[in-house]
Amino acid sequence: MTPDLLPSVPLGLLGAVRWTTWLLRRVPAALYRPFVADVDLPMTVVVPVYQEDPEVLRRALATWRQEGVAEVLLVVDATDAACLAVARDAEGSQGDAEVPVRVLVTPAPGKRHALRTGWEAAGTPLVALVDSDTSWAPDAARHLRMPFADPAVGGASARQNVDDPSGLLQRVNDMYLDYRYFDELAGQTVAGRSVSCLSGRTAVYRRSILTRVADDFIGETFLGVPCMSGDDKRLTSLVAMLGYATVLQRSARVWSTFPGTPRTFVRQRLRWARNTWRSDLRALFLDRWVWRRPFLAFCMADKAVGAFTLLAGPVYLVLALGHGDLRFAAALVAWWWFSRALRILPHLRRRPSSVLLVPVFVAVTFVMAMLKIWALLTVRRQLWLTRDVAVVDGAVVRTGPAALAARTLQPTGVPS
């Protein structure tokens, strides 16, 4: 080895370790197969609605009314007049529709109260918790119920993608989602039957479990601060703590809207990163339940470490450019392009043109690593960032225009 290559040895060793950990996750992911079974358990779709685009809600609502769904419950925030009009219209004009729509209006701010209000009003063995911007494939309800043929399964998540991605950031988000559902969650389902998160965009639970964990769900705190977001991570953890399996059902397809502007993208990713830190730190070091699920514990620890080690590459790139070592810099960039393309092959098979976006995907990955570190330093902050709601003085409150609207309300008859 020549002296000029010695400084790159630590980067090479770090890369070898990171690729080894990826292969340990990827091998079980390659063995994943969706659950196949005939399940007749009826399901209620519960949808918390707050500051949604009314037309997006209207389109999504039409997709939830399919065979296997007994009822759609829309839990609408009392300040959201536009979405309430859409919900009331669906409730009042359903006629002879096989899947009825019921509207509950909640004066209590925050998504967690809306979710609990919905599942307590449901009357079916299974409850699907669905975001108000998420559309389903025509057979999603049938596939989502299949894992529950196994009584050990307590929760199941669908495969998700961006709804009609058009901008650069939406395309990158779509790439991340394919990586997540063909790599991370697939491997966790096979190796441990316990996934890190049943995404709130669409997740199905046994209602009996939801009623058992309701108080722990609503009353969650972290370092003394009430938790407002991260509802999906919290529910996933509570189900796993009871000993139930949480799994991916990749044959169930759903699509959601995603931010197209850098500001909204950063805010959303920062909120998700804080939620992940809070949930994973609790699972690893406070409640410590995840050590009963060794593969998931390994994935959590690996993801936490990866937020820091990932930035070694850009540091080496800057140093190489500063020293005029263009050959090393070019080789490093080419390796990033090839290696990241290899990791997102399932996405590239679906959208081959995305190979041209791999450099952007790599750059966004580095930005996200920095956001994760900032999220760790600010982990006690409880802000939604993309909705007018936050934790103030230990309570979940509406903010901005929503706070003014709330002061004019006379809410009635809906428990919080």
What is the element layout, followed by pairings?
Blueprint lengths: L8 H22 L12 E7 L4 H11 L4 E9 L3 H12 L8 E6 L4 H11 L4 E5 L4 E2 L3 H6 L7 E10 L5 H25 L9 E5 H12 L2 E2 L2 E2 L4 H11 L3 E12 L5 H25 L7 H16 L2 H11 L3 H18 L1 H6 L7 H20 L11 E4 L2 E4 L2 H7 L9
Parallel strand pairs: 1-2, 1-4, 2-3, 6-10
Antiparallel strand pairs: 4-7, 5-10, 6-7, 8-9, 11-12
Helix pairs in contact: 1-6, 1-10, 2-3, 4-7, 6-10, 7-8, 9-10, 9-14, 11-12, 12-14
Question: Could you please describe the fold and organization of this structure?
Answer:
This protein has helices spanning 9-30, 54-64, 81-92, 111-121, 140-145, 168-192, 207-218, 231-241, 262-286, 294-309, 312-322, 326-343, 345-350, 358-377, 401-407; strands spanning 43-49, 69-77, 101-106, 126-130, 135-136, 153-162, 202-206, 221-222, 225-226, 245-256, 389-392, 395-398. By secondary structure, it is α/β, with parallel strands linked by helices. It has a single domain, classed as Spore Coat Polysaccharide Biosynthesis Protein SpsA, Chain A, CATH 3.90.550.10. The strands form 3 sheets. It has an 8-stranded mixed sheet with strand order 3-2-1-4-7-6-10-5, with helices on both faces. The chain has a two-stranded antiparallel sheet with strand order 8-9. It has a two-stranded antiparallel sheet with strand order 11-12. Helix 3 (81-92) links the parallel strand 2 and strand 3 (101-106). Helix 9 packs across helix 14 (358-377). The longest helix is centred in the middle third of the chain and has 25 residues, at 168-192.
